[in-house]
Amino acid sequence: AYGIKKEEICGITEWIMDSNSAYRERARWWSRDNLLKKKGIGQNWAYGQIFNLKQYEKPLVSASGYYSIQTNYVLNEGKELETILLRKNGANIILVGNDEAGKFQIISDLSKRIYEGQVLSSLNDKRVVLFNDKLMLIRNNSKQKFEIEFVKIMNEAVLAGNIILVFDDFSGFILGAETIGVDLPSILAPYLISSSLQIVAFTDKERFHSVLERNVLVSQHFEIILIKEIDNYGCIKVLENEVRVFENDGMFFTYPALVSIVTGGQRYFSDGIMPDKAIDFLQEIAPKLNSNGKRIVEEKDVVALIQTKTGIPMGDVGPKEKEKLLNLESLLSKKIIGQNEAVVAISHAVRRARSGINNPNRPLGSFLFLGSTGVGKTETSKVLAEVFFGQDANIIRLDMSEYSGPDSVAKLIGSFGKSQAGTLSTMLKEHPYGVLLLDEFEKTTQEVMNLFLQILDEGLFSDGSGNKVNARNLIIIATSNAGSQIIWKKQQNGDDLMKAKDEIVESIIQEGVFKAELINRFDGVILFHPLDEASISKIAELLLYKLHDRLADRGIDLVVNQDLIDFVVGFGFDPKFGARTMYRVIQEKVEEIIAEKIIAGTGVAGQKFILSKEDLV
User: Fold this and answer.
1) CA dihedral angle for residue 492, residue 493, residue 496, residue 500, rounded to 10 degrees
2) Cα–Cα distance for residue pair 349/329, rounded to 1 Å
């Protein structure tokens, strides 16, 4: 009744127990682990000094810092890292992943465990050094100077005998060195086989494939560890560690707030990777609420910020929105004429999405609109965007006839080999929420349809560089003229299209236009009826009132009377093209007459504009 979930009770309890356990362990100075932190006198005298290397050392998370809650996310990769470092020769590693925070947590945890004596004896006295490659390139900006300095540093690290050297942007360091003519892998080669030095390098997935994977020296001397994507549970654990910084300043996060940050970051923000996105969000919301004097961050605060950043309605439904949602059918019917099935299906989808009961791992809604041209398929998509996402809604429109060649998938998602960004992946990264309109869907290739088979099913796809693109905050509408002939015939014969729907869809499948599994992935297949006379007249009236509103901004009052409506219908309606030709009639006939009057000075602001039959002839 209070909105408390079993998972939250368990999560809160575990958080308290972990925090108390870590605190108690830290306080027990007599424990074995804490006693091992006390190093013997002169223990490091057995190793050489690293005076030159220290000039390029960046600070790593302190190994003797505040207690932390351990996470499996860090421990699993950390154990694999430790196993490789135990080798006598060739113990070099590349950590591949787009999660910057995760890579640093793994290496920081290793450093911490070495400091606390929690590793096997052969790693006990190792020292983890994070190398400042950018400073190296700035200070040594010529080939000769760079090579002399870098070799001196590497020799010093080998002589020290206990160094684990970490490059946090290995691909960038190699590329930066190339700009001054330095072949960095070749210089590193003799040090990579040394038993006195180990190297750990970080890189993201994209540059691993483009810079490192094909380099023979790299593939021979480095073990590759792919950092797995963190799950929600692991991400919450990471945040539990991060909030300690704010708790020290007197600001506290509730457990549901952490859960909301994680789930919201996953669903509503496509850029970046977890837990980086969640940490960034944590660091953004804390100072904002703190500046307003709020010391406890609750779930509703997180929801409010996500809604502000995305524009997607979230949280509790207010009185005005509630009234709109419960009366969607009547509101949509004012703008979508003669298509009752579409109105009902859209209304149901919008209410499901807003209530939060729809599947979070699929798009908000997906529809296949079938019918002949000019019956309102595209206009319905625009109305839907306006109703669900507001006046500033994003409609991402793709003319699928442009994606009918063999390179269509590459054009949509990008091509790694050609360093080409994809149209669809770029659009969704820039506008991850709105309506995705796929016009003339039947004209694209089977490979593209297979891509959308995955998108409709999972709400995700990978771009040309292997990065995930989120499509879960979209309502996807595919329009098609497929089956329009049989729809027309059924209408002419007076058949009930709803009863004939299965027959129409089956005929489309039999013709090979769409596969059955693709059609079944849509939340709904909507048949758009050929427009009758009453519907055409109503559409003409709506179009004329749009012109009326544009002229009103200039102070001109266009009177929309029956003569004007009949004129537009009479000249503009074509059974083959539906209502589409009425747009041209209004533009070429009505607007032209008004434009001439304005230029001639007979149509001025403040006057009523009544077009007679004589004007319209």
Assistant:
1) -100
2) 12
Interval 151-193: pLDDT, tens: 999 999 988 888 889 998 888 899 899 999 999 989 998 888 8
Residue 389 to residue 434: CA distance in whole angstroms: 7
| 544, 586 Cβ separation under 8 angstroms | yes
> What residues have CB less than 8 Å from 378, skipping those under 6 apart?
437, 439, 479
Q: In sequence order, what are the residues at sequence separation of 6 or more whose Cβ sits closer than 8 angstroms to the Cβ of residue 66?
A: 244
* Cβ contact 521:457 at 8 Å: yes
Show the CA angle centred on residue 129, arms to residues 125 and 130, nearest 5°: 155
- Show the beta-strand stretches assigned E in 15-65: 57-58
How far apart CA 266 and CA 273 sit, in angstroms, is 8
pLDDT of amino acid 65: 39
SS3 content of the chain, % helix, strand, coil (to 5): 55, 10, 35
- pTM score > 0.85 for this model? no
What one-character-per-residue DSSP string does 211-250 give? IITT-HHHHHH-EEEEPPPP-HHHHHHHHHHHTHHHHTTT
Q: C-alpha angle with apex 520: 514 to 522, nearest 5 degrees? A: 95
Report d(CA 178, CA 160) in Å as an integer. 28
Highest mean pLDDT among 30-39, 81-90, 102-111, 437-446: 437-446
Exposed (0-12), middle (13-18) or buried (19+): which is 558, by Cβ within 10 Å? buried
Residues recorded for the chain: 617
Tokens of 158: 């080998």
Note the pLDDT tens digit of each residue in 481-508. Answer: 887 777 777 666 666 666 777 788 888 8
pLDDT tens digits, 297-336: 999 899 888 888 877 766 677 787 788 788 888 888 887 7
User: In angstroms, rounded to a whole number, what is the distance separating the alpha carbons of residues 347 and 333?
Assistant: 11
CA 139, 143, 144, 148 dihedral sign is positive
The yes-or-no verdict on residue 138 having pLDDT over 70 is yes
Whole-number Å distance between alpha carbons of 442 and 401:
8
- Spatial distance between the Cα atoms of 445 and 405, rounded to a whole number of angstroms: 7
CA angle 426–432–435, rounded 5-degree value:
105
Contacts of 587 (CB under 8 A, 6+ apart): none
Please provide the average confidence, as pLDDT, over all residues in the chain: 81
pLDDT at 572 over 70: no
Q: Is 608 helix (H, G, I), strand (E, B) or coil?
A: strand
**CA count, 13 A, side-chain hemisphere, 21:** 8
Q: How many CB atoms lie within 10 A of CB 95?
A: 26
450: DSSP letter:
H
Phi and psi (nearest 5°) for 462?
-100, 135
Q: How confident is the model at residue 261 (pLDDT cuts 50, 70, 90)?
A: very high
